[in-house]
Amino acid sequence: MSDSRFINGRPIKQVCSMSAATIILAIAVVIRFIHYL
After folding, report:
1. What is the per-residue pLDDT for 1?
2. How far is it, in rounded angstroms, from Cα 1 to Cα 18?
3. Which has the closest alpha carbon to 34: 24, 19, 20, 26?
4. What angle do CA 29, 14, 3 make, to 5 degrees?
5. According to the model, what pLDDT value does residue 19 have?
6. Is 29 exposed, middle or buried (0-12, 13-18, 19+ CB in 10 A)?
7. Where exactly are the transmembrane stretches of this chain (predicted)?
């Protein structure tokens, strides 16, 4: 069970970090777009 948890935990953490980075980039783009307007 500990092995499956470790294997399942790794990709989830990577996906969370990737989604967080994309969200930050999207927010930055929106802020820039608002500033241009």
Report:
1. 45
2. 26
3. 26
4. 170
5. 81
6. exposed
7. 12-34
Euclidean distance between CA atoms 24 and 30, whole angstroms: 10
Q: Would you list the DSSP string of 10-27?
A: HHHHHHHHHHHHHHHHHH
- The per-residue pLDDT for range 1-37, each reduced to its tens digit, is 455 555 555 665 666 677 888 889 999 999 999 988 8
Collapsing DSSP to helix, strand or coil, 37 comes out as: coil
First to last CA, the chain: 54
Q: Return the sign of the alpha-carbon dihedral for residues 24, 27, 33, 37.
A: negative
